[in-house]
Amino acid sequence: AAEEIAASFIEYEVESEEFALEAAAKLVSNHDAVIADCTRKEPKSQDHIPRAVDETSAADDVLRYASSILVSLPGSAIKNAKKAPLIKISNPVAGALAARTVAKRLSVPRDMGAPAAAILRSVLYTIADRLENEE
């Protein structure tokens, strides 16, 4: 059930530039901690969520790409995630896993507000799907 809820964010369509920028700001300001969390071999919490263990480079690349999508104004971050040229990384499967892990681990309202989190989750799931289909 949790996986279905998380995956449903790819269908999210409501957005605003303000909330996309909020999501980007949080992702950028917490970049190192987010990378560490989504690649940690022994997670501190929610250990049932798979991590992209030892794939910091792929996670870093994907999160930087997601941030660039979120700030690509004017326009819709969600639509841009679906249509922008896809990032080329050495391990797309690990990048997709890192994106999904971050999307699942977001905590509302601790990490960011609900609208910003929904946009970020949608962007991350879209990127993950595209990376997996690129293989």
Write structural notes for this entry.
The chain has a single domain (2-134), classed as Globin-like (Orthogonal Bundle). Helix content is 63%, strand content 0%. The protein is built from 7 helices and no strands. The protein has helices at 2-7, 17-29, 31-39, 56-70, 77-83, 92-105, 114-134. Helix 2 runs antiparallel to helix 4 (56-70) and helix 4 packs across helix 7 (114-134).
Shape descriptor: globular
CATH fold-level name: Globin-like
Q: What's the end-to-end separation, in Å?
A: 27 Å
Flag low-confidence runs: none
Provide the residue-averaged pLDDT. Answer: 89
Work out the oligomeric state of the chains in this entry: single chain
Overall structural class, as computed from helix and strand content, comes to mainly alpha
Helix content: 55-70%
CATH uppermost class: Mainly Alpha
The CATH architecture would be: Orthogonal Bundle
Give the helix tally.
Answer: 7
CATH homology superfamily: Phycocyanins
Helix and strand succession?
A: HHHHHHH
Largest sheet at a glance? none
Strand elements, count = 0
**Measured on Cα atoms, how large is the radius of gyration?**
13 Å
Number of domains: 1
Beta-strand residue fraction: under 5%
